Amino acid sequence: MATIYDVAKKVGLSVTTVSRVLNNRGYISEATRKRVYETMEELNYQPNELARSLLRKQSNVLGLIIPDVAHPFFSELASHMEACAYASGYKILLCNSHLDPDKERDYIDMLKRNRVDGIIMGSHTLEVDEYRTLQRPLVTIDRMIDASIPYVASDNYLGGRLATQLLLDKGCRKLAHICGNLALDLLANQRDAAYVEAAAAGGVEALTYETGTNVFDEGEYRELVKQLFAEHPEVDGIFAGSDLMAAFVLQECARLGRSVPDQVKLVGYDDVPMASWFVPSITSIRQPIRQMGELAVELLLKQLAGEEVPPATVLPVELMERETT
């Protein structure tokens, strides 16, 4: 295996000069830079990234911890983050926590050992002090962990109000909100608060069905929807906490012979691409997923550059009406 000494010898330069080329330090002519890289390719030399990061005190790698990349919202979010980071000269190290505190802690330790420059958290299951002591820039997605940690979110309260008001305007008289576990104290809980307030103002009955603490368990979505219709078959308007949840509502309505939107009107959340693929296509509250992901990366990079960043960045949402309403 070729070493940096082999590259220096073949190209006729000092090891120090070759190192400066690799680490982009000091003035190096384009001709010299080209000769070094051509020789590296010829000798199949692979720089030691860990050694280079120790020298630069920078790895150009960002950590991303999310609950589950299989979930449509997080897969789209991660894709946009990776593209934004790569365009800025960084790579993403992706970790699935599955909302397991031990797993999340292990991943945080791994990211620290690998000297990532900063971490984006789309999951948080640990005590606040464990995040405060990470000793590297941190940004959270849709989670307010601590006043000292900046976060990016969409306007969850507005999303809940838009969804509920549409169901009311369509004439629904008994509503249900299927959502994640409200005890987790996430910013997404504001959707339910807006739903309850709007339903009360409209003078209609409003039920809330919560998942367990594993809010991304698809099997639980199916059982929760079945339970809702078994206990309240007269429900005629449903606000689902994600487009994936809404898909299970469509499935159960088909099984029960309940026509959507004639007998049951349905609004999902996120507006991931799959929302428009179903028949009927799902009305949804669109989160600006791309913008959220890009902003999270940009805020992290600004912290790395020593710049001040706002503690909270809240982006607007939009109602996308389709066939389920």
UniProtKB/TrEMBL annotation:
Origin: domain of life: Bacteria
Alphabetical UniProt keywords: DNA-binding
Protein name: LacI family DNA-binding transcriptional regulator
Organism (species): Paenibacillus mesotrionivorans
